[in-house]
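Posted in: Protein Modeling Q&A

I'm a second-year student putting together a small comparison for a lab meeting, and my supervisor asked me to include a predicted structure for Ubiquinone biosynthesis accessory factor UbiJ. I've never done this before, so apologies if this is the wrong subforum. The sequence is pasted below exactly as I got it from our records. If anyone can share the structure token output, I'd also love a short note on what stands out.
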Amino acid sequence: MPMDAFITAAVETACNQLLARDPTSAGRQKRLQGKTLRLHVRELKPLWFVFSVGRVDVLAAYEGEADAGLILSLSALGLLRDPSALTRYIREERLDIEGDPQLVQAFGSLFGELAIDWEEQLSRYTGDVLAHTLVSGARHGRRLVAAELERSRLQLAEYLTEEIRLAPGPLEVASFNDDVEMLLERLRAAELRLARLEQRMGA
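Accepted answer (user: helix_wrangler)
Welcome! Here is the predicted structure, written out as tokens:
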């Protein structure tokens, strides 16, 4: 299988499986039905996302004109998790948009707002007890990582301001804070899902 075909098949399969596991994704998909979006990650070849009822096809080449385009670097892909901030990211030159900006925002919302209960998915294969054990360990690990990130951020800020009187530029600060905030949001969401799983197990 050619490399382009392998990549598009892998991305397409991953996208459709993720959307299938999110019961709320159908409503967000409706805004994209019949539309085509060109995603160009600067370090990679462009991909075209063609949306139809209940699925998305990913192509390495597309003869027609895309309804919208999104251009960004590989490191900026995480920005799509916050589609409401796309305008700010454009001003900061962290990404570029071609065509319909509302379509790009809908694309970001489709994948950035995935609400998958991973604990429930895991319990289907391992059972509730093992799923609970694994998730508890993962939650503990996430808390340690979050605490270490916060400690490192505070130490770095103190060093820059007190030791060498330097500070990073506003874009670097914004990017770092965004990454930390996204991680903390994921941790909080995982804890809420774990609490729901524990409630079901205790019922």
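A couple of things worth pointing out for your meeting: The chain has two domains: 2-124, 168-202. The longest helix spans residues 128-163.
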